[in-house]
């Protein structure tokens, strides 16, 4: 009986399995969708293929060209989301024209262009804040698409100043034509450092939280609100392998987070995936465009590339998940033409910008270019310094600060590097227009004044000297003079004092303001009016708000702010040129490289610049052209100056008390003298040892005699002990 019931149950289960299985299979059967995310970043108002500085076409830039790639990518996959990652409203004369002439962000040409192309959302980059919060508010209110940021908060309400994220509901198709619905969450981030960079506009109004901490805060909320996929718009470079609170470049950290399925990055004006970039970081797959198995792209600058992230989504039990993903780039150099529809959308702003930049402000008697501005004192930087100094001296008249010498800090902004071989100032003799001033000074910075001491001035220059690699005088092979990872806008040349940079010493500070070698000093022979600068001497240094408000930059962070206004540096340059009328762009050569000993004449230092620089190499220049590389950049040789005579041994006598005191004094910051390639931290000890050489004959004789006596005594003791031990045996 039991066997009968057993067989009956088995039979029923077998029959039910055929009935139930199709239903269960229908519930668990996977749906699969290919979702494509397209992204731009760091457009910097390059809406068209036009160079407003040179007033000519430039097919290496322009959203009107990127638009063709966007349309092509959409045709390949209709399941597409189109996003922008910020730094869109500022960066070339079109952005300046909008802010300074139109004076409103309403109906901004950039957002009109994005709306025309069907962008689903845009992030805020750090340069969106350059023109102030009111201008930005006007632009956002009239944008016609979601403008996002999650980590900027209103200081009064402690609430998000902007919309932190957007959840986009989209109908998508499987390969078999079946329709599905997915919800894509998009969240935006900006570097916390905007509080320093745009302090004038932001201080007391907003605060900025850490990027990673903010992401961890909002990911669960976005999931709770139905986001099937989360895309991070991170206006932040990839950065390092470890997280530091408040870090500027945190995109690599975002790729580690559970819940983030794709990351579109920018800010660094770089490309990923591309070549070997970022492969030094753990778990980077450049071939597939992933970091920590998260697909990610960084699409260059000015519309040069389109980022493409392809995700394969699977749906099981009514829940979507990312099966796999891949990041890639497409370059506009591989296409021809423009999107004519978009050209018409921005035509009025484009034409008005051309008229604006061609307004005359003065004349120049010689060419002005920045091809060699990083390796020698240069007219393109000198003009900015002259204008700043001219302005500040007028502003300080009748104030308590009038008594202090005014120095001027300026840096070479357009110096190739990450922005390409065409990114140099090149102004020909003749009429100077607003476009030329914008070419000299590309940022909408404002004038800033600091009261600094001699020791602070020294540290400021030490930080700037990090622009150069450490040159090993013992090597004969080629050495790169310039550290291309050090941003040239941090290479401040301070005019009004004279100094030399000793590149045979290691840099004191790194590119992130960190101390690398606390006991070194590259800045030598720092002088004012022919006299050494002393530690407590005071100066006024005129700079820009970006530098002056930076609380991390050595020498600047502890300085006293004495002037902070809304006057743009470019306005100051225009006024200076108009006042001067005809300028003679000549560098005063207040800085140079410290000479090295003749025995190191074999040192072979090189740097890169545009091949166009060849035309501007003077007859007695230490610069000579070597070759043009496949990258388009040219390699130039720089011959470091040699000392007139080789170093002679110090006088062979015991130093006096006064000499010892002088030795101590030379170790103070700012008062070191160049030693032609020897280690400055060991020089004084070595000098003292050399001066004791005449007294060594007698001590050496005594030492030898003592050693002989000890040897004889020791031998006797040894023989006696051995004999004694033998007798005991």
Automatic annotation (TrEMBL):
Its main location: other. Residues 362-550 form the 5'-Nucleotidase C-terminal domain. The chain crosses the membrane at residues 700-720. Its cofactor is a divalent metal cation. It is found in: Cell envelope. Residues 35-270 form the Calcineurin-like phosphoesterase domain. It catalyses: a nucleoside 2',3'-cyclic phosphate + H2O = a nucleoside 3'-phosphate + H(+); a ribonucleoside 3'-phosphate + H2O = a ribonucleoside + phosphate. Residues 1-26 form the signal peptide. This is 2',3'-cyclic-nucleotide 2'-phosphodiesterase. It comes from Priestia taiwanensis. Residues 651-693 have a biased composition (Basic and acidic residues). Coiled coil: none annotated.
